[in-house]
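Structure request: Four-helix bundle copper-binding protein, Sphingomonas lutea.
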Amino acid sequence: MSIRKMIALHPGSKAHNNQALGDAVHHLMYASKMCLSCADACMAETMDMTQCIRLCLDCSDICEATARLGLRRTGDDQPILLELLELCARMCEQCAAECESHDHEHCKLCAQICRECADDCRRAAASIAG
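Returned structure:
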């Protein structure tokens, strides 16, 4: 089962190269859930993790919204999708930097998926921009 394949099979996506977008949506879906899980784990830590929680929750929401728009191949909303991909890459980098400042294993995993997601969002944005 693959979201990449699902995007490629969409009748409205035949005119587009969807490999980079499929990779981004794949990572966006995982990053959204990993950030949500990291935020929850941060709440259980004894130290003040307020900023990390906030960034993880914001990142999760932005990744989720970007993935949802990336899945929609009917019609044309490329300028908005491009802006969301670029915003998401910045948000993922910010979340990763915050998570990397903590020594918790859940934060390290979150930072890793965020960095991967940011890279894929940039590649997808470049493929859309032409």
